[in-house]
Each structure stands twice: as structure tokens, then as C-alpha cells.
From TrEMBL:
<dbReference type="InterPro" id="IPR006680">
    <property type="entry name" value="Amidohydro-rel"/>
</dbReference>
<comment type="function">
    <text>Catalyzes the reversible cyclization of carbamoyl aspartate to dihydroorotate.</text>
</comment>
<feature type="binding site">
    <location>
        <begin position="16"/>
        <end position="18"/>
    </location>
    <ligand>
        <name>substrate</name>
    </ligand>
</feature>
<feature type="binding site">
    <location>
        <position position="271"/>
    </location>
    <ligand>
        <name>substrate</name>
    </ligand>
</feature>
<keyword id="KW-0862">Zinc</keyword>
<dbReference type="InterPro" id="IPR004721">
    <property type="entry name" value="DHOdimr"/>
</dbReference>
<feature type="binding site">
    <location>
        <position position="144"/>
    </location>
    <ligand>
        <name>substrate</name>
    </ligand>
</feature>
<feature type="binding site" description="via carbamate group">
    <location>
        <position position="107"/>
    </location>
    <ligand>
        <name>Zn(2+) 1</name>
    </ligand>
</feature>
<comment type="subunit">
    <text>Homodimer.</text>
</comment>
<dbReference type="InterPro" id="IPR002195">
    <property type="entry name" value="Dihydroorotase_CS"/>
</dbReference>
<dbReference type="GO" id="GO:0006207">
    <property type="term" value="P:'de novo' pyrimidine nucleobase biosynthetic process"/>
</dbReference>
<feature type="binding site" description="via carbamate group">
    <location>
        <position position="107"/>
    </location>
    <ligand>
        <name>Zn(2+) 2</name>
    </ligand>
</feature>
<comment type="similarity">
    <text>Belongs to the metallo-dependent hydrolases superfamily. DHOase family. Class II DHOase subfamily.</text>
</comment>
<feature type="binding site">
    <location>
        <position position="182"/>
    </location>
    <ligand>
        <name>Zn(2+) 2</name>
    </ligand>
</feature>
<feature type="binding site">
    <location>
        <position position="259"/>
    </location>
    <ligand>
        <name>substrate</name>
    </ligand>
</feature>
<dbReference type="GO" id="GO:0008270">
    <property type="term" value="F:zinc ion binding"/>
</dbReference>
<protein>
    <recommendedName>
        <fullName>Dihydroorotase</fullName>
        <ecNumber>3.5.2.3</ecNumber>
    </recommendedName>
</protein>
Amino acid sequence: MTTTLTLIQPDDWHIHLRDGAALSTTVPHAAASFNRVICMPNLVPPVKTTAEAIAYRERILAALSNSDITNERKAGFDPRMVLYLTDHTSADDIKMAVESGVVSAVKLYPAGATTNSADGVTDILGRAPVFEAMQKYGLPLLVHGEVTHNNVDIFDREKRFLDDVLSKIIANFPALKIVMEHITTADAADFCLAQGDNIAATITPQHLLFNRNHLLVGGVKPHYYCLPILKRANHQQRLLEVATSGNPKFFIGTDSAPHATHTKESACGCAGCYSAVHALPLYAAAFESMNALDKLENFTSVFGARFYGLPVNTSSITLIKKEQTIPESYPYLDGKSLTPLLAGQTLAWQQV
Ligand code: NCD
Ligand code: ZN
């Protein structure tokens, strides 16, 4: 039985660090495990320009330097910025982003799809000049793949996005690098498999470990509520299969998304699971459930770097098979708290 796992230092290709006072919690949590982190731009207001991305990166680095994590982790942590695509983003914005060297990708949120996405794109195929520029420069498009029409059932929104939107983007821009972020369905997994090497997908720990029963049976459990929403068990099973298959199209992206506890435990609770602190033990549990711990390192530490055209990290982390209890909460913002995914529950693995 495997009791120690040494992994090349992982990266997180999809994380929400937020801004302001939140950074003093989220940055050291992320930096404890990850080197490169792709920082989602859905701030209020969103990160729309290269200048805003550079300023946001500075705020993240200031929080890092003020934190009490080790100098080694401070040196390893490398926040990578993303521009939030709007109806007004231009091809010139893309050129400037590429030339800055600070922007690693552009994020497409269909307007209204998720937390802080009100400024998202309303006419996706109207963004052709932007996609052309991104294709030319090799700048990846990260997609939140859900349609947002009121008449489409929330459990069908990912599948409809594949059929109605993503297939058209791919047909029109066949060389555009695209990451299907936080996929949740067998449909998305199989769609990704059917595309060329320029199309990949990230998978969160919660979509590997849970299905909609965890969210809804025996009472509504708001800490399992994220978008895209957890689906049926057969979808969870397909995600486990592709994540552990060794196919380089599928890699880590935690989508760790902090919301203060009281905003999730509410009559209109926010979407997002906070998984940054325990992400690797969570993924280890998922891979172990498939008898596939030997496939974990490529998923957490190799395939994403390769897709983004970056070298793999030279440092490493160790997980040991030793039970730990996830804390009930962390202090967050001014006197508030942050409830992590699986708060108070036991995990078989821990990061040392
Ligand atoms: C994210 C957030 O809170 O910013 N929430 C979520 O449920 N995943 C937004 C997102 O990634 O869709
Ligand atoms: Zn996200």
C-alpha cells in the first residue's frame, strides 16, 4: 500500500484569490501548495486590461510578502494573470496583454453565468477579432462553459454550451487554444476527447469526489454548491475515468472560490467551494478511489504546464497517508469566517 507520495510541485490552473483583505487568507493558502496559479479575473470590477492585471498581480505579491509562509514557498509562488473578456475587449487589448508577459490567458464568462459575471460576454461569436488575435499569439481562451438562458435547466447548461457555443468557436477558430474550465459532465469530457491537442479541460476536486446527491439529499448543503453545479453520479464517474486515464488533456484546476461563511449559509447562497488548503489530499482521495495514485502527478504537476507551454517545476511536495480533520473554518476578511470544502470531516491524506 502506498503511504508516501512525492509529487513535482503542483500548479493550480484555475483559482479565485479575490482582492483586498481576502488576499491575506487566500494567497498564503494557495502558495503553501502551488507554484503557478492562474488567477481568475472576476473581481468587482473585473480585471479587463493589462494595466489592471499588472496592478492585481502586485497586490497578490504584496500579500505574499506580508504573509508568514517560508521564503522557499514565497520564491516558488508565481501568480499568472487572466483578462476578463467583455463585449468591448479588442484585438489591441490582446496584443498588449501578450507583449506584457504578465497575462497568461483570457477568460470567457457568458454574461450572468456565475459569481461576478455580469460584465461577461453577451455576443460570444461577435468577439471574432479577439479570438483571431488570441489564435495568432497562442494565448489560451479559458471558458466557463454554461449557457445562461432562463429557459435552460441548470443541469443542462454545460451540455447546451458545448452544442450551441463551443463547437462554433472551435469551428471558426480551429487553432485557438481553449481550456474548458471545471468540466462537470460526461458530455464535456467526451467533447474534449474528440478535439485536437489545442483543447484541454480542468477538473475540480469537488466534481471528482461528489455528485448532486451530496448537495441535495438530507437537506441542502450550501458548501457543496458551486457552478457549474454538481451533476449525477454517472457524470462524476466519467470525470474520474478521464482524470485518471493519463490523457494530457485533463489537468488540475481547483476552482477554489472563497465566500464568507454567512454568504453561503444564506437564503440565496453564493456559489463556490473553498478547497485551496486541502486540494492535494482531496485529489489524492479521488485518484485513490480509482486505484490510480500513479496517475496523480501528471494531472497535478505536468499536463497543465505542458498545455501552457511552461517547464514543469523543479521543487516537490510530499503527501503522506495519515488522517487529518479539515478545520471548521478559517478567519476571513474583517471578523468573518471561511468554511472549507469538507469542513470538520476526515481526509486520508495530508500534505507535509
Ligand atoms: C466562482 C466564484 O465564486 O468566483 N464560483 C464557482 O461556483 N465556481 C466562479 C466560477 O468559477 O464560476
Ligand atoms: Zn472559477
